[in-house]
Amino acid sequence: MKEFKYLITDPIGIHARPAGLLAKLAKSFEGTTVFLTKGDQTVKASQLMKLMNLGVKAGDEVTIQVEGGDEDAALAALEAFLKENL
Prior knowledge:
The chain is α+β, with helices and mostly antiparallel strands. The protein has three helices and four strands, in the order E-H-E-E-H-E-H. The longest helix has 15 residues, at 71-85. It is globular and about 35 Å long.
């Protein structure tokens, strides 16, 4: 399992559009599971409604964990996505 931490800079936080794109990206890595953690709550990043229910706002730090066969590629793609969109 590999992970990285990211500080959310988007003024709205993780809202519908980026959450949907993040869930779609997380699903695209077959055989790899992506988790997003805020505080003590962890959800699969591929589950849109659970991702939205975390209530991630600007200034929150989240941890992305990647587990599976394509960890390196998934981690790189997710880090790039977060920097571009959140």
